[in-house]
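Researcher: Structure for this, please.
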Amino acid sequence: PNKFLRHAGYVFWLHDYSTNDLYLKDSTFRVRKGLSILSGEENGIVYDEKGCKKPVVSFEAINFPGFFVRNDVNGDLLRLQRIVIDDVNYYQDATFIVEIVKDEHD
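Model: Predicted structure, token format:
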């Protein structure tokens, strides 16, 4: 709690929460329909190995329209990058599967 992902220098960092205007903008995103062109995708849905539907989303930076959260090429960093039209790798790297996780306290 009290920590948030925020982009700085186009890389994501885990920062303590702040009410600073720049901090709030750097840690706020529009949830968009997943950009990916994944096998089995249908209107923002993918199917997992059990055939269950899973929604997919992409995250666009509030303060950098057209820039999306993307996995780094090596998969070890999250970066903010301008959308690359017709780049299947970019679409896949900028798409995340929504998983509903039940809190054990519910």
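Researcher: Any notable elements?
Model: DSSP finds two helices and eight strands in the chain. The beta strands are 3-8, 11-16, 29-33, 45-47, 53-61, 67-71, 78-82, 96-97.
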